[in-house]
Write a structure and sequence with these properties.
Layout lengths: L1 H7 L25 H4 L2 E2 L6 E2 L5 E2 L9 E7 L4 H19 L4 E7 L4 H10 L6 E4 L5 H7 L10 E5 L4 E7 L7 H7 L3
Length: about 180
Amino acid sequence: MMLAVLLGCSGEPAEPPQRRFDAVMADPNKVTPPNAFCDSYATEDKAKPFTVPALAGTAWTPPTSWRWVNVWATWCGPCVAEMPKLVKWRDQLAKEKVQVDLVFLSVDKAQPEVERFYAQQPGLPPSLRINDVGQLAQWLTAVGLDASTAIPIHFFLDPEGRTRCTRTGALSDTDYPAVKRVLGG
């Protein structure tokens, strides 16, 4: 076995494998259409009403403009890392006359966890919290995702409360134009 390991090493460091997004030079002028950015995209005529999970405490209010629901948790590193960026993007969108209500939805087990997080993160908008994290898989299925879908999850709802775009995973700095386009900007 040691011989196989030694034969596999040439003494020079191997180049890292190309990642999907390194394989082709990006065109900075290319506009990403919503159906390419979203894992699931629906036109206005095919969009379905967003199913709200049972919430702890604060009640859900129907949207009056576009709504961006970010599903997160205090223990999710990528979720926590992107939250300030999402707030910054919401503010930038408002400056560009694109109205969107950013709603954080925590899937933490208990409110004290969320409160401890917010005590260390002043300036973030408050978060709703799912009432029973044990019902998370059932809710994910109800909104058209796999029961084991990882967070963060982004839902973009039109002013009528219909899910127009679902995107899983953390957003990168280069996703702002696609987010703006999804929101009609």
